[in-house]
């Protein structure tokens, strides 16, 4: 089933998405480099090094990784995002490093050669766009197929304590040249002590300020939720195993019942 976020209005304007999400990219990539250096021995061989980002969006992380000399590729199901990423990359890097592909079938669809990736990364809850256990399992199978021996997969994900969490609101702002973007986003947790349908509802309101005037974009989408037990149980059933957990800066940190962690996996 297609990810409902692909047709969500938040994702339709790749430039606005990129403006909003680019701040902090350097620090995020710093953390990923730290994780790769710690957990992915295969990544130390420059002649074989390859980073892969499933669901890369506008390509901000792959773009910066390439500028730092890291051979990298990304794919996304959203054709508009990939067109934008290729356009931004054309002046500095190979635009074909970006492909349209599905997280559940990307190796089968030739977006990544089997056994070629030394480091795969998927941050800030993107994994939770996979809305069923079958979809998540299929993705983990594809990652295992993509990984070189000694490679690692870094997954950034919030876990949930069902029945204990409240609706929260965040506000993000960014500007590039004459275009400013502000996002107000609410996260509505699932109800019930067992999470019910395990769906977190995300409500976003964008205010876009251009020289021609101000516009507003509203959107809603869903993310699948995981308790720590559910998340670790999914990994246990997969061809990958957990080898470490870090905070968002890439420093080793124990798993937690709730909150954001980067879970580092490798092949069994």
> Which topology of the largest domain does CATH recognise?
Rossmann fold
Number of structurally distinct domains:
2
| Through-space gap between termini | 28 Å
Please tell me the overall pLDDT. 93
Computed structural class = alpha/beta
Strand order of the largest sheet: 3-2-1-4-5-11-10
The tally of helices reads 6
What is the CATH top level name of the largest domain? Alpha Beta
Which band does the percent of strand residues land in? 25-35%
Spans of at least 5 consecutive residues whose pLDDT stays below 50 are none
Work out the radius of gyration: 18 Å
Note the run of SSEs as H and E. Answer: HHEHEHEEHEEEEEHEE
List the SSEs and their pairings.
Layout: H1 14-21, H2 25-39, E1 51-54, H3 60-67, E2 72-76, H4 79-89, E3 98-100, E4 117-122, H5 133-146, E5 147-159, E6 168-176, E7 179-188, E8 199-210, E9 213-224, H6 228-236, E10 240-246, E11 259-267
Parallel strand pairs: 1-2, 1-4, 2-3, 4-5
Antiparallel strand pairs: 5-11, 6-7, 7-8, 8-9, 10-11
Report on this model:
- With 268 residues, the protein is of the alpha/beta class.
- It folds into two domains: 4-159 and 226-267, 3-Layer(aba) Sandwich (Rossmann fold), CATH 3.40.50.150; 168-224, CAC2371-like domains (S-adenosyl-L-methionine-dependent methyltransferases).
- It has helices spanning 14-21, 25-39, 60-67, 79-89, 133-146, 228-236; strands at residues 51-54, 72-76, 98-100, 117-122, 147-159, 168-176, 179-188, 199-210, 213-224, 240-246, 259-267.
- Helix 2 (25-39) crosses helix 3.
């Amino acid at each position: 089933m297609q990810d409902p976020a692909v047709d969500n209005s938040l994702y339709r304007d790749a430039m606005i998405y990129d403006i909003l999400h680019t701040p902090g990219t350097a620090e995020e990539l710093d953390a990923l480099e730290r994780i790769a250096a710690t957990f992915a021995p295969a990544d130390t061989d420059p002649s074989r090094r390859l980073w892969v980002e499933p669901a890369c969006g506008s390509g901000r992380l792959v773009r910066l990784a390439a500028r730092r000399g890291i051979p990298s590729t990304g794919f996304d199901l959203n054709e508009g995002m990939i067109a934008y990423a290729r356009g931004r990359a054309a002046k500095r890097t190979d635009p074909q490093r970006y492909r349209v592909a599905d997280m559940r079938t990307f190796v089968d669809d030739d977006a990544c050669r089997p056994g070629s990736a030394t480091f795969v990364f998927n941050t800030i809850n993107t994994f939770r766009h996979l809305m069923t256990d079958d979809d998540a399992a299929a993705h983990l199978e594809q990652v295992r197929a993509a990984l070189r021996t000694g490679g690692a997969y870094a997954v950034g994900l919030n876990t949930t304590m069902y029945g204990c969490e409240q609706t929260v609101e965040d506000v993000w702002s960014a500007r590039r040249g004459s275009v400013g973007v502000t996002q107000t986003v609410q996260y509505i947790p699932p109800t019930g002590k067992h999470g019910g349908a395990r769906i977190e509802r995300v409500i976003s309101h964008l205010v876009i300020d251009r020289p021609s005037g101000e516009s507003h974009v509203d959107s809603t989408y869903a993310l699948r939720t995981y308790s720590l037990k559910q998340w670790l149980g999914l990994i246990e059933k997969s061809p990958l195993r957990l080898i470490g957990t870090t905070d968002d800066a890439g420093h080793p940190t124990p798993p937690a019942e709730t909150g954001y962690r980067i879970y580092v996996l490798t092949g069994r």
